[in-house]
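Our collaborator T.R. sent over the components below with a one-line note: 'Predict the complex.' Nothing else. No constraints on interfaces, no templates requested, no preferences about which chain binds where. So this is a plain run: every listed entity goes in together, and whatever single assembly comes back becomes the starting point for the next discussion.
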Amino acid sequence: MMRHIALSSFAVSPTNRRLLGLLAVLIIVFGFAVGKNLFSPAALWSMGIQLPEFAILSLAMMLTLLSGGLDLSIIATADLSALTTAYVLHHVAMLGYGGIFIAFAAGLGVAALIGVVNGILISLLGVSPILATLGTMTAVKGIGIGLTHGGVVSGFPSLVTFIGNGTLLGVPFSLFILALIVLPLGLMLTRSPLGTFIAITGTDESVVRYSGVATYKVIIKVYVLSAMLSAVAGFIMMGRFNSANPSYGESYLLVTILAAVLGGVDPNGGFGRISGLLIALVILQLISTAFNLLGLSPFLTLAIWGGTLVLTAGVGILRERFGALHVFRRKLS
Amino acid sequence: MLKQFRGTHEFRLLLAVVGLVIFLAVASPRFLSIQNILDLLTSTAFVGMLAAGLLVVLVAGSIDISFTAVASVAQYLAILAAGHMGIGWFPTLLIASIVGISLGMLNALLVHMLRLSGIIVSIAMLNVYFGLLMFLSDGQQIFSLPDWFADALSWVIGTSARGDPYILNGQIIGLVLSFVLTWLLLNATGIGRQIRALGGNPEAAKRVGFRPLRLNLIAFGYLGFTAGLASLAQAQLAQSVAPNVLVGRELSVLAAVVLGGASLSGGQGTVLGTILGVAVLAIMQNGLILLGISSYWSQCFIGFIIIAGVSAIGLERRRQRRRTRRNTDDPEATPLAGGLA
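Returned assembly:
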C-alpha cells in the first residue's frame, strides 16, 4: 500500500488509463455527434468556467473520502463562507482592497471553524462521518437561511466578480485558482507525511494510532482543509453569479462523490489520485457540455453521469472476471 | 425488562420527546389539540413512511438514499395511470408499490454485482432515476388528479366544538401501517431476524447459510415499497404531482432514522427508536411554528438537534465498545462503528 501511495504521480495508473480511454472515446463520439461546435472557443470557455468550482468541491470531497470519511457539509460550507464574505464586503468594503482581503479571510475563517467542528465530532466523539457532516450541513445551511431569510445577497466589487468570470491570458481566471490548489494539494498527498497519514488513516486508523500519531489531528486537518476548499469554491460561485445565497450549488453535493469514485478514489478510503479525479471531471464536464450543445435536457446529463459510474464499475468487474479466467486458462495450458 | 429498557437510547429519546411535548403543551394550548395532532401526523407521514423503510436497509447493514427518486418515479407513473386509465385507488397503490419494489431491488442487485457500497450505488441511481424522470416527463406537473384521489381512504372521526370535522386521512393510515409492517417484518419473521444478523455480522450470517443477496433484495425492495406508498401519501397531501419536489429530502429522512438509534454499520435500530426519531424532528418543527419562532430558523435548530443526537449516540457506542473490550480483552469483539456504511 505504501508503494501505491509513494508511486510517482507521473506514471499512468490503470485507472487513469481506462479513464483516458473513455475520454478519448467520448471526444470522438461527441465530436461526430456535435461537430466542430464542441471545440469552438465558446464551448471550451463554458467548460473552463464551469469546471473549477465543481473540481474544487470534488477535491474537498475526495480528501475526506481518502481519510475513510465523507463530507456532506461542503456545499453548505461553501455557501455560508460566501455569505460571510458578502456580509463583510457590504459592511467593511470602504477599506478598498484591504476590506476585500478581510472579507475573504472571514469567509475562510468560518469554513475552518466548520471543519474543526466536523473533525472533532468524527475523531473525538466517534460520530460516523456521514452523520456528523449531515448534522453540520443542516445546521450550517440553517444559519445561512436564518440570517438571509433564504434570500440573495448581491452586488460586489469587480475584483470579486473577476474571480468567477474574469479572464487571464485568454483563460478563465478560476482555472488558475484550480491549478494553484491542485499543485500543492497533490504534493501534500503524495510527498508529505500528512498525505501518507491521511491515506493510512483511510485504510486502517489503528495503524496510525499505534505508530504514535494522534489520529484526531489528522482527521481534523482533513476536514478543515475540505471546508476551506469548499469556501474557495463558494467564492468562485459568488463571483460567477455576483451574489451569494444559502442554497447555491446544492445539486453538486452528491455528484462530487460520483466524480471522485469515477476518478478511482476508493470510497472506503486510502486510495485515490488527484489526476484520476481531474480526468473524471473533464469526462463529466464534456458530457454535460456536449449534451447542452445537442439541445438535450440537463437532467439527461444527470442520468448519464449516474449511468457512467455504474457502467464503469460494471466494466471493471467484468474485466476482473475475464482477467481471472485468463489467468486460469494460462495455468491450464 | 423495564430496567433493561432504561439503559437504552430509545428510553433517553422517549424522555426527550415527553419533555418536548410537556414543554410545548404548557407553552402553547393549541399543541395538544386534536386538530394539531392530526396535522402533525399528516405532515410527517411522508418522512415517517420512508424512515420505516430505510430502517430495514440500515439494519441490514447497507444504505440506500435513492428512495426519494424512487418515490418520484412511482408517484408519477401511478398518478399518470390513474388519470388516464380511470383505475381505482387499489390498482393505483399497486402500481406505485410495484414500481417502488422493482427499483429498490434493482439497487440491491447493483450493490451486489458492482461490489460498491450502497451509498455510492444509490447516489448514482438517484441521479439515473431522477434524471430520466425529469427528462421523460419534461418536468411537467400533473394537476388533474382523479376525483376520488383527494379523499381516498379518509374518514371523519369526529367534529370539533366549532363543527370542523376531524379527518383520519390516507396519509395517517399509511404512516401507521408502515410502522406496523416494519415492526412485523423485523421482529415477527425469520427473514427479519436474518436481516438483523446480516447487518450485525455479515461474515457470520454468510457462514450460517443466510443468503445476503436475497436478504438485501427484500430489504431494498421493502424500502422501495414504502417509497411507493409514501409517494401517494405525499401526492394526496399536495393535491398535485411534480417530478422534482421529493428529491433532496433523502438526507432529512436519514437524519430521523439515525436520531432514532439506527447505526450505519448495521444490525442496530428499532421501530420504536425510529418513530421517536421522526417524532422529535416533527414535533420540533411544529413547536417552533406554534411558538411563533421564524420558520427561517427551524432548519438551524434541527441541525443542532441532529449534531447533539449523533454525538450522544457516538459517545455511547464508544463507551459500550470500551466496556466490551475490557470484558473480553479482545479488540475485535465488536464490529467497529463509524465506517462508511
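Summary for T.R.: Chain B has one domain: 2-328.
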